[in-house]
Design brief:
This protein is mainly alpha-helical and 552 residues long. It has 4 domains: 238 residues, Lysozyme (Orthogonal Bundle); 72 residues, no CATH class; 65 residues, Membrane-bound Lytic Murein Transglycosylase D, Chain A; 119 residues, Membrane-bound Lytic Murein Transglycosylase D, Chain A. Helix content is 44%, strand content 11%.
Amino acid sequence: MKKIFLILFSCAITGTTIVFAQGNTQPNKDNIQDNSIVAPESLNEHLATLLHEWQIDFSKSDNKCSQGSNIMFHDSVYTKRLYDLPTEMELSYNQVVRQYIDMYANRRRDVVGYMLTIGEYYFPMFEEALDRYGLPLELKYLPVIESALNPVAVSRAGATGLWQFMLKTGQGYGLQINSLVDERRDPHKSTEAAARYLKDLFAIYGDWNLVIAAYNCGPGNVNKAIARSGGKQDYWQIYYNLPRETRGYVPAFIAANYIMNFYDKHNICPVESVCDMAGLDTIYVDNQVHFNQISEVLEIPLSDIRRWNPQFKKDRVPGNYQRYALVLPTNKMYAFLEKKDEIMNFRRDDYITHRENTDEYLVSAGLSVSGNTENVYYRVRSGDNLSKIASRNGVTVSQLRSWNNLKSTRISVGKSLVVKKKAVVPPVQQPDDALVAQQAADPETVTKTVNEYYRVRSGDNLGKIAQKNRVTVAQLKSWNGLRSDKLSIGERLIVKKETVTVEQPKPMQQVAETNTQAKDSSGIISNYLKQQLEGSGADGVGVKADVSAETE
């Protein structure tokens, strides 16, 4: 009690006004004071980080005006300027708004100078989408406080892009998010999604300040604040019931509207850039392509392609999955169309490293030990190139060149190419009736088939190989699972099958019994065999590898 009395007595002496946030006591929007607000995350970002992520070259700027010192105005000036702006939203003034205006005009004036230039590219895009959905155009300044107009911004909570969508919210509004593409970073698509989201929130609250608050902290937190305030539907009347981070959000938005309209009154100049943010166009890509391929063929700086297309997280357009929009300058767009095949084939194996099919490794590792592989052929058509054929068949260009002994990537229409090598399981050979009878009569012997191989050389065909080995072409095709007469140089073929009889080892139990009978007097050997039999099982039986010989 003494402590409370001392605090009240001290406040009375100093003339300090205390506004209690408990109960239903509601502040007036004109005398709101709050020293515990948290500034939006983007407003605390270092300029060096922003310059890197904006990816705009400001080093060669030649500004016509110089930044002067900040000029501070009386509250009545700020109040009138905000009130006179032709806006649908209520942009009221109070001391919290004043704090944010001072921050923009003083501590963050350098960032404002850069954002004014970047805004020349983004603001018309935002206005077009907002106008299409019938929303207030002043909402275009929302990304100023959300992301500082940084399309690749990521908050501590994981909100991403200009409009800072969380993953689930972004997906709920149709934005595609995967390992290679994040459309929350796509300026066009994220702006479209943000406009739809803002319109849905306005349908709930009917008050733009509440909409802005809900955009920041979610409708659930706004609804709780409304309930705690006794059902008040005015942002400033529920102010102290909102999360601490959200209290500064609407004031920061109002201050952003002020500084973007009256920056010159505070001696802030737009920082000029040599980068041309206009004159861009869109082309749809339906094939996988890396930014480096575009950059090197069209002679465009890689940083420019990244700046125009921030939605592609790994510098790769996964066009095989679906068609994606690629943003390029208009003149480069026509060059892309003219050199599309050259771009797609340029160092493709270096930049597009994912393998579509790895059967070849399984084949080379042992599936085709018997030489049972089948070539799949394709006849080249007009408009084909090795890249297209490789992509279509799930192989690489280097494989096509190796299989077909190609010294360059040029191919002629009508040429037959090996495009795949399929492993073929050889047909199971049925033993002769005589051998079956022999095995039944003599259970201690088994029959085995031994394959003899031949490696195909230049000029060989099935007829020659069959004649040389005194077999028929039909036998060769059957043994090797061949569906056609075509052969590949270096391919291994089964050219003979010889059946041999092998004596079968006696079972361990029979050996043990024989030894026990022969050496009944030796207890040591008998006990040893008994222990071995008790400790052995089916797993102890080894499988002998097939024996094969190869002839050249």
